[in-house]
Write the structure tokens for this entry.
Amino acid sequence: MAESQSVPLIKPPDEEEEEEEVEEEEEEANSLRRIRPANARLASLDVFRGLSVLLMIFVDYSGPLLPLVAHSPWNGVRLADFVMPYFLFIVGVSLALAYKRVTNKVQATCKALLRTAELFLLGVLLQV
């Protein structure tokens, strides 16, 4: 009987191959950074925001005409009941993306709270 030699099924990677892979990944990451600058907006979030506002307007004006679009009286779910959760999701993602780039989070939070108070007071004054 001939002795069988064990042949490894997976070839151990050479150090040169690993270095080449790392360099390729770095080049790809750099090319992606060149394509999208740091201050670029997220197009998908802007589209979702626009569709959410469009849905808000559609529900507001066609709600009385189309009963399936208007808010449900108590139980059940209709199209109008999705507007607020969509909008809150957009706000949360926008805040997370904005805070990702900020270095001083305390100052950014103070600015956000001040802006919230200003918008609230503006809304109160416009209702009077």
Notes: The mean pLDDT is 79. The CA atoms of residues 23 and 29 lie 10 Å apart. The first helix runs from residue 15 to 35. Helices lie at 15-35, 43-62, 83-101, 105-127.
